[in-house]
Write a structure and sequence with these properties.
The chain has helices at 2-9, 23-28, 50-56; strands spanning 17-22, 39-44. The chain has one domain: Dihydrofolate Reductase, subunit A (3-Layer(aba) Sandwich). The mean pLDDT is 81. The protein has 90 residues and is α+β, with helices and mostly antiparallel strands. The chain is built from 3 helices and 2 strands; from the N terminus they run αβαβα.
Length: 90
């Protein structure tokens, strides 16, 4: 959680990071910690056309994607990403 908090809360004084999460993840956060402080909290559902929403937004400048190198049993997955629309920075 320390890495997640650091990477998602670090911002300049005039900008905030966004945390995009599914509804069930949002509901799993204890109410006293919602919304996550110092971040824009975005909750999505399975009925949202996320690609259309991203195409209309002027804000996604950086996209941090953490690859978890372990398989977990789950029923919700992040959509495939067209990586040619992004530039990798390290």
């Amino acid at each position: 959680m320390d890495f997640f908090t650091k990477i998602t809360s670090t911002a300049t004084t005039d900008k905030l990071n966004a945390v995009i999460q599914g509804r069930l993840t949002w509901e799993s956060i204890p109410k006293k910690f919602r919304p996550l402080a110092n971040r824009i909290n975005i909750v999505v559902s399975s009925t949202l056309d996320s690609q259309a929403a991203l195409n209309q937004s002027e804000y996604p400048v950086r996209f941090y994607c953490t690859h978890i190198l372990k398989d977990y049993e789950c029923d919700v997955f992040f959509p495939n990403i067209d990586w040619k629309n992004f530039k990798e920075i390290t």
